[in-house]
User: Fold these one by one.
Assistant:
Number 1:
Amino acid sequence: MPKVNLSTPEVQIREKRINSITGYQGDAQDLVNESLCGLKDKSRSFSQCLGCATSKAACMTILIQDGAVISHGPVGCASCLHEFAFTYRVNSPLRSIENPTQRKIYSTNLQEKDTVYGGSAKLEESIREVYKRTKVNAIFVLTTCAAGIIGDDVDSVCEQAEEELGIPIVAIYCEGFRSRVWTTGFDAAYHGIARKLIAKPRERRNDIINVINFWGSDIFKEWFAPFGAQPNYITPYSTTERLKYSSEAVATVQACSTLGSYLGAVLEQEFGVPEIPAAPPYGIAQTDRWFRALGKSLGKEDVAEEIIAEKKEKYLPQIEALREKLSGKAAYVTAGAAHGHALLDILGELGLEATGAAIFHHDPIYDSGREENDQLAQRVNDYGNVPNFNICNKQEFELVNALNKIRPDILMARHGGMTLWGAKLGIPSLLIGDEHYGMGYEGLVNYGERILETLENDEFVKNLEKHAVNPYTKWWLKQEPHYFLAGGGGK
Amino acid sequence: MSGIIEQERYTCAIGALQSVVAIPKAVPILHSGPGCGDMIQGFFERSTGYAGGSTSPCTNFSEKEVVFGGIDRLRQIITNTYKVLDSDLQVVLTGCTAGIVGDDVDSLVREFQEEGKPIVSVETAGFKASNFEAHSLVVNAIIEQYVSLYEVDNKPKSETETVNLFASIPYQDPFWKGNLAEYKRLLSGIGLKVNVFFGPESGGVAEWQTIPKANFNILVSPWYGKPIVDLLNTRYKQEYTWFPHPPIGANETERFLMQVLTFALEQGANIDEKKALTFIKHESDAYYEEIDNLATFLLEFRYGLPNHTHILHDAGYVVALSKFLLHEVGIVPKEQFIVDNTPEKYQEQIRKELKSTSDKREIPLYFEPDAGKVQDIIRGLNHSGRGIIIGSGWDKELAKEKDYDYLSAAVPSPYRLVLTTNYIGFSGGLRVIEDIYGNVLATYR
């Protein structure tokens, strides 16, 4: 089992820590089998713009209510962060934040001379200036490629500033080049937060359950109430105070194991908060397992059984009606790892045929080390194998190629920028941002209705298809999607 | 200025990849870290064009390339780009990683050029320049490494009525597409044939090839883009006429068209001056018919309209909107903020230009790329009457705090969709008016 190590300022990258990969071609069953016995990553001889750890670390820190974020690099490395300021503002009603405050986002604006003489002094001044301006309760410093290569000792600067200012100054090592798996950025943010913000527990609170998630709707309040508990959402919309005592919760659950793998393990191994031994609740089989695991963790198995029975009674007829309408429709999924598996669960449960998937990366095992948390394995067991299962590293050329050949009835996506290609090919495409939307029994109804609606309202994509511009060559569309993946024939 | 920046309103040098995206059928190839393209796409939003965003090839630097250099990886990516993507022009842009490890990208790209590929390289390490500055680097690289190949068939200054226009920076100016189309329409109206290079009104790479043939160049800019007209002056002996900001509304659009007309005649363009003046008069008459109608509303609307404004924008828009709003709308420009990191050597002339707005009032002007600091200054200001803040998406919260009206007119802005709207010209002025009062009236429920 991988072991969390909070003594070093940098988190160990995901491909080393849990053997994550970014290239694979085959089917889901084989991937699950190979994951158990030393999966090997494959490289590509062609690649497109990917995305990096820094923006992933950014979204887990910018949305902390009482913090400020400094990107230590040239201005470009903080370019897209305004999107998280927007997210914070727009989604705040979902989390009952009445007056969302302005997000505090800075760049140290490194110049050429800084790459020669170092940027540490500039960072030092910047931290001081940000504190003067904001008087926040914590400052997060995100590293970038430039800062990483010139070798600024960010950790020391942060330590000194912390002493001077008396608030946590959290160094987060998330340079884009360090890891091929951008979700290492989540781990990096959590690593810094765990080192600097989470305190040793004073007591165990049986009424608090940590939920590691993005900025989805507050469904857990209702779900936890029968257990006599309430959710502590971390880290978006949290506060430094709530993070500090996340160590006192009775358990941790995940909205997406790709996201929370590391933080879940940190809370368990370092602070004694057990992660419940079940993958997130997508699909009936997994939802039942999840509620039972939760009930067991809280010593309230009976409550779990009551909830399951109640939900079955309420939602099964609706789910069955949806199944009748959706049965046999072909769907293709593109998403980051665990949420892609979640979508495949939903499709399986609703009777759609999953004809393929382009998943960004794959974690053979999560940091908890528990096989029960392996959502893809569960999916294969519960609903069967998925053919054309690519680990595509968000490579659009592979997705376009595969979609063009497979031509599913619907494309289900979970990451921006990918639905366009479904639509260009005339395939109804659905992206739902709220990661909680598909959870539980009600989630199946939610999704089923949206899938039906998307299939029904295809006029827009059919029209777009007629006029779509396609930059991909005819030659490329004739190759196999994995042509440029090692062993695929291309060089 | 090189201090800390809160709330970025521009991005780093590699942001100029959007100038490539704006050329029909051109593809940017990034030799950079894996996140650079994503950052730029996220900054501008809805900016993928033909082959930008997730379509752009990228070497996605990993630890290996940082340690051993990334040239072999880049060679592989370029080679395979030709197999995967259809494109007329490829522009290789470098990021910080390539810049710091010192990859010799120029030599590699030369190998492809020698094979006859239409490929160009340009150094755009983020720490070297802003995207305002790098736009010129990209354009000049294309001129020197691509346009230069077509000089034999495109004799310098061989078409007396043709001009090259360098104005809005694609994507950084949210109205670039509409603006370029309107410049083209207006300048065609006075008898010129105009190359605009970017967007659907350009003729793609074929148009770029004819750059030398133009009689002269037009630069519409407070400061950026100057290296382009300087290069063309050296290279093809083309003179240029420089207008200091986007012309918004009738006063400045007339001044702009008259300046170009006069210059064209001096440069020996065979233009029917009378016809050109008739065109300008017609456009102006149509404009004032609207202003006539509008005046009653502006003078009589009883429920409150903004009487003053703070603008946070690049130097061009700050000056242009200040002039326009004061003289043609009746909104008084109070403290103004240029957030584009204008190089110091251009600041004095921009101050002068803004000063020329009015003899009887001083408009305080700040050059401050740290827009967080700007917002703090605005928080401390207090003017009587209803105010409007014109800026980027960042400023919506500030406007709410101050109980001001708000118009989103700068990047980045998740609060507004701009497709082909133009802000320049007579019609652009009218559109600014529509946008301001549309927002104001929408506050009455």
Note: The two ends of chain B are 44 Å apart (CA to CA).
Number 2:
Amino acid sequence: MTTIEKTRMDIVIVGHVDHGKSTVIGRLLADTGSLPEGKLESIREYCARNARPFEYAFLLDALKDEQAQGITIDTARTFFKSSTRDYVIIDAPGHIEFLKNMVTGAARAEAAVLVIDAKEGIQENSKRHGYLLSMLGIKQIVVAVNKMDLVDYSREAFENIRDEYVAFLARIGATPRFFVPIAAFPGEGMIGPSDKMPWYKGPDLLAAVDAFEKAPPKDNQPFRLPVQDVYKFTARGDDRRITTGRVESGTLRVGDKVIFYPSLKSSTVKTIEAFSAPVRTSIEAGYSTGVTLSSQLYVGRGELMARADETPPQVADRVRANVFWMGRAPLRMGKDYLLKLGSAKVTARLERINYKIDASESGGDATTDLVERHDVADVVLVLRKAIAFDPTSLLEATGRFVIVDDYEIAGGGIIREGLADEARKAAEAERVGTTLWAREAKPGTVVFLAGDEPALDGAADLLRAKHPVLGPLKADAGADGLAALADTLFHVATAGITVFARLDDLDEYDVESLDVRLASVPRRWVRTADEAAQVAKELGA
Amino acid sequence: MSQSQDHLDQLENQSVYILREAYANFKNLAMLWSIGKDSTVLLWLARKAFFGHVPITLVHIDTSYKIPAMIEYRDRVALEWNLNMVYGQNKDVLASGETFPNGKLTRLQCCKALKTDALRNTLSGAWPRYRMNHTTGMYEPDTNTDPYTGVIVGARADEEGSRSKERYFSPRDKNSEWDVGDQPPELWNQFKTDFAPGTHVRVHPLLDWTELNIWEYIERENIPIIDLYFNKGDGKRYRSLGCAPCTGMVDSEARNVSEIVEELKTGKFANIAERSGRAQDKEDGGLETLRRDGYM
């Protein structure tokens, strides 16, 4: 087949409430012939019959009702076509109350049209949406200065808004592609040149949108794979240990040397695994994949896999970041939050607010120690343990995070830079006071009776009279079985009780995984008949 | 994303990512399998995500009015793919016969009793669950009665208005209820994986798929699908599967997967909603009412 598939692009249309988003969308649908036949006419007739002025918002509402009842049925998205592309407009409500929905929609878009009312000028949400788009990583923005008919198509009015908005966006390092003067309702400047605005020489709105480009592939950037999990499913004789995750950027080949951050463990890629798919020797950005390694490492969620021959990610436990806040309760100092970046999840605290980007123009001051709902701020965050990341100026996907407050995603942010850990000691002192074993009694010891030596079973039976003895755990219990055992052992030991676990002969990886999971309690490995006799004597009847 | 990925690749890789996030974050995880094409694609994607294994319990709500071939297919696939297969049902209502087919309830009331109530109580562990014993091929009472904290569902945004408002990870409160107006933000593939005790999270890996994508993927991957979807010579087939008394066949000549794909792309179904054969959707309130209450 030689037909060229038309590309598809997801865009959002944002702006302050009542600046004309619905009219812009309605016009785009109508003027590109993307509406069902007769739809526009029937809405106009309906308005005339009911003595109401026609509005494009009615058209959109009518489309939604119809969709809800049966045909394309997707109230969160609207579709239109130009001669070059198929567009999906993702719903992104303008009202401040729906900021979370706006962010959810906009985060999925590839490009954005930001609508500003020529008469009302730049309003709070014009600014807020502008820097949110920038933080969400949407670089391609067209600003539509709408309702030019209300300012007599004045060049001066347009240029004033343009200059003011360019200056504002420059503060956050964003530059719109085009400013397009339009009057969406009468259809000026939407498609083709407007004879009302002969002074404007740039593209019309549809041409400006068609000039958006698909993001270049990330295959040539440094390789990054946040580890989602390590699988070892033993059913039906499967002995592969597969390190999984999605390739966020770059390319990986069989034989590549890889390093995991922050642990700095390294190995070599042995195979690239897939189910019911052709064998691959390389994998690139966008794929949810899995690899086996030439050596068995204990790595898990929170590690970032990178190639040894490329720029490494950074590792830090203090970062400077830009955050936007959506939570009902403000982001405050002295409170523990969870920060999630890639597959890493760490406790984080707000250390300081450098400045706020204030949409209401009361000036960026740092006199407050709160980041309130709908605020955007430049802050320093301290993390309970170091994580691996890239500053978003270098790689976007591995520099973005969300902040969880009381089970809810309450904020999002991007890392500007990692910081030296000068505050670490102070934070350390604070943290000792809150750890479990600082409050509880001295933890009990976990004693592993590991291997197929028969004396170990004898010792286990003897010890059972006085101590909790878990197991036996079979070698094929899998990662879940092992994790559940480690959990139980941890809870018993931290309650101050010495506990035994009878295990089959485990491989090095499983031994290390138990050691890592139980790193904070004393452990003892018993493998031989002599050791078994010794431990039975010490701790038995 | 990569240039080498087409739209189906992108959908597949996103769904696999979501399944792995669900598996990593929820201890007691279940996946609803209705035996229909969507949840069977979901099951196939789980095999992709976990390299041929399915380390998640599959839950089927058996209304006892399902088309009999569906139960045979379920048990055959469960044995073949080594699935942790569990079913639950509303035993009391079935015993008393208070159902729509017996003329005792409306369609919607019947759906609520046999599906929503059965689902809710099977997920919470309040009613018995029956697990397949792979040695005997028979079902036995399940010893695990803990509530499932994560439930993976094959809902698609394009199916029906209320489903297009869903998130990939969508919280449900203690009564399985869904607050459509106040949903968590979802960005950069960070999902709601932290939840208060007593609540649970519905996970929707197929949210971005359309009916056409589902069939194109079934064709590409050669996924064994139940043959009720095909015309076997009488010019009729099921487009959507449910209980026998409430699910009608549609007139169609499509005899295999590629003919279905062609029919959806260019034929007479290009502009007709998939659930048009489901009678309960046409009653007052329809699916959104059922869904607020905890229906899939």
Note: Chain A touches chain B through 59 residues (CB under 8 Å).
Number 3:
Amino acid sequence: MSKRRLSFAVLAVVIGVMLWRALTPESANAVVVYVSHDQVFSEPILKDFQRDTGIKVLAVYDTEETKSAGVMNRLIAEKANPQADVYWANEPIRAEALRQQGVSAPYRSPSADGIAEQYRDPEGHWTGFSARARILILRQGLKDKPTSIQAYTDPDFKGKAVIANPLFGTTTAHMAALFAVWGDDRAKAFLDALSKNGVQISSSNGESADQVAAGTFQFALVDSDDVHSRQKQGRPVEGLYPDQEADGLGCFIVPNAVLLINGGPHMEAGKKLIDYLLSRETERKLAYSDAAQIPLHPGVDTPPGVPRLEALKVMKVDYATVAAKMQAIQPLLRDWVGH
Amino acid sequence: MERRVTLLVVVVVLVIVGLLPLAAMFGKSIIVDGRLTLGVYEKLFANGRQHWPPIGNSLTLATLTAGCVTLLGVSLGLLLGKTDLPLRRTLAVLLSIPLLFPPYILAVCWFNLLASNGVLVHVIPARTLELLSGWLFGLPGCLWVLVSAFMPVVMILTLFYLHAVNPRLEEAGMLIARWPATLRYVTLPTILPGILFGGILVFLLALGEVGAPMFLRYAVFPVETLTQFSAFYDFGAAAAAASPLLAVTLLVLAFERRYLREKTYRLRPTTPGRRMLLVPLGRWRVPALLAVSLLATAMVVLPLLALVVSSLSPFAYPEAWNKAADSLARSLVFAAVGATLLTVFGFFCGYLIHHRALRLWRAVDTLTLLLFTLPGTLIGVGLIALWNRPATGFLYASAGMVIFAYLAQYTALSSRITLATLGNVPQSLEEAAQMTGAPWLARIAYVVLPAALPGVIAAWLIGFIFCLRDLGASMLVYPAGQDTLPARIYTLMANGAPSLISALCVILVAVTLISLAILGSLLRAVGSHR
């Protein structure tokens, strides 16, 4: 064989191996998880699961701009041909929406024992764990600090506040919760007041937090982990749990939620992953991580700066009602944002 | 027969990876529950007014970007390719660096530079910094970032097309006028079709750009497609949202085909042995060098410096490596596979267009250009619409989808490079081989390819760079656990420490530059061997 033909043969083999590696689907001992929780926080947990169980974890993560919406909707689109086994939602509302769409399968994990019924689907389709709170991030050194989300409508803060796009992520859930608790009229009036008071819309909670840290705005409604991460970076911000008065609304608690995908390719591995995610040890890790999330299991060790659930005044909501409301208010929110 | 079958197969593959996904997506927008309806379009455009601002923003940004890039790119191309400016090769390479990574990384660099705790905080007064920071988030910032990102396109095209100017015409011009007039009346008119083509390309690329405008909070219309799909997974609405952009793209490409394409085809480098006439700058040498150096500093050195400085934290690089080594390895493999397939398909597409071997050669050229200029998110949406079915699940769940995305988006690059290269390969060589009775594939393998080898290698190199930096389509179609490095960087931006993100960007840039250096050496070695 001439040198040239040999070279071509070697090249063809190399290309064939590269193509095979590129196109080979995942091994049987694997679990596919779609994750809406921030990759920087969720990936270490998934890697620990992989290390501890030997089951390869194949993950798809959301991006900041489509937080918890893109991956959820990919699951709906793949309903007839599911690719995922587990969905790790960063809020229960989208998990509830998936249950309503018939995407999930019921699974009552033994690890869920101890988690309050409020944070679990009655039929076992999803279970909450490790929560964030919706809190206000404030620029350090503010003379007049807002103590309620109603500060968004306070003329003293006109043009000085920002909120993440309510079409995506936890802001959608929070808006839906307000509609569920206040009723449509009062909630619509609140949105109108936001517009009139010059509240700016950012693309995400992270961007809102960055803008407050940069001094562009004085405060924003974000998730507690957004505040914690900016504080860890040494940026001049502080967090405040809003509406904590005796007659106050309370702050909206957003637990992560995990559910099993109906018809997923690796159901048994999916159940093992769910058991792992709902464990006390995972909640402890997430509490101590930069996510600074509040455990839902009582008695889980937490660091200073991560409050216990019982120490907070919490907004009383039914997540199934909030999920239904979230679907209903989509057109209104789109009009409000301007889509 | 052999030639016809091979080229038809290439065309069919191009249609499958490129045209069919778009058709599937637009099909979903007009066929709802088995019935033909335009309801999605009516619904989306019912409040047409709310769409005018982002459409206006997109057109404004694209027009300004194309205009600035053309002026700057041509000027730099002339200075670096046509004069005796010192260090022109180094400056040309330096100014081309922004082409190696996605524009949103440049946006991140400028954010790091101008943030209140950024690199320039100790150099620029606080008020000026605040003003600049305010400009960054909006049209001025977006324009600056896209001009920096796309200027190399026109600059490189100008450098390339300058070789198409017959030096004898310039010499004749110099007999009666000086260099400025010769450049104005001989050189520039000769290469004008190529420059305009470059401007049109930049216009379409800027029109479809999503990453940088989203980061810099400038509301552009392609974001609507991404929103409709990513937030609502509404294929129909995503397709409808993309239709104005598609219409503008088709209009511009129709203009390009009608007025420029034939003239661009005729722009072929003159005899390689002949040196290009250089303009002596004389006393303008030093000022010109200072001006270009300043521009290179502003456009390339400063943002890269900001990226490196913001990545300098004790744990940023180990953490970045820990988080992204696997996606980096995958990116390199995907890019290599993608570049190889792009080179093969692009070669045959370029051959088909050069020889007009099939009647639909114009359609093939237009299709590849259209796919190149469409937003990557649109191509990704189309691929999902077509392949997300039980029967094709094996493919949908594989990284083959990422490769398809590369093929759809970037075949135009390798096709046009092949086209330009084949212009230098005398047809008589192939005809002589044909007369000896050699089959067509043998003629391609033993006559055409060796003669076109530098161009083929250049096509592979450029395909590799573009596949490595791809974000739009690959972010939507990568299967679970197989994300690429640009997608990984984008997902880690959510609460990822700035130093981590910067370190990841530096790794992406460094890997691309190292790959270029290695492959560039290989190219020189192959060239000198011939």
Note: Chain B touches chain A through 51 residues (CB under 8 Å).
Number 4:
Amino acid sequence: MSLFEGGIAILGLALITLVTRAFFLYPERDLPLPGWLQQGLRYAPLAALVAVVAPEIFMTQGRFIDTWVDARLPGVVAATAYYLWRRDILGTIVSGTLVMLAFRLGLGW
Amino acid sequence: MTGTALGIAAWGLLTGIAMAKSELALPLALLMSLIVFAGSAQLAALPLLAGGAPLWVIWATALCVNLRFVIFSAGWRRYFGTLPRGQRLRMAYFAADLNYALVLKRFPVPPATSQSVPYFWGGVSLNFPAWHLPSLIGLLVGDRIPTQWGLGFAGSLALLGLTYAMLHDRATWIAAAVAGAAAVATFALPLRLNILVAIAAAVVVGLLIDHTTQRAAQPEEDLT
């Protein structure tokens, strides 16, 4: 991706963030929110996150991983366990990263 | 408030490192860090930008990740809807997740008062540097960290943590599982279309669950 194209993409990202944050705040009059949209909005952000994360965790170069010897897996297990224990995102990131590093650098997974 | 600012700072640092680790050119990473001001959208867009996905796929993904702000903006309107339009737009740019949580906690009853507006800007003045400074530091020093450590994984874990925070009932768990399976199963599609397939599948499944269980179990839908 060229610098110019990347710049356009990033300006668009900034604009999208502003538009979504201002969506109901900016108009002068109240906008009605249809019921099905309200319900669908519950799932779209969640799905977008999972769709980005799942391949990053379970795939290597476009293929589903076929081995347990992958440092990402214990990392995800540790992160998940920490989240269930503490419900804290920061600790989830730190614990998962440390476990992944321990397996990758210590055991060479 | 300092505790949450520390969390924001660590999150900003990790986002900066993830950006330094991606294939994104430094000027672009700096530009993104400075003007986008939305951590989860930045992390989601990162692999797409680095992999040269088409613009509309990048934007559609960010739009979906940011959809929660549309819901928040309906909440903000109840607080600040009577202020001048220019001021509302300025507030919207700075209205991150943390500020929403803080204002909601401090002022449970909506209408804007002489206190809630300064409180909002006070929160922003803490949140904004707490995000940007560590983010820039991570961006500039992240390159010194060897690639084989795979620290970009921290970015995936950050998104994973955000995902867990959104799972609060059976319907959201099932929708997430469907989205994950669909994204992996259709990964071979061009243009990262697997993301859009996953979103469509999860929304359809989620709405189906809502419409089949709503009347029996939960007459009042909790919109969060």
Note: The mean pLDDT of chain A is 87.
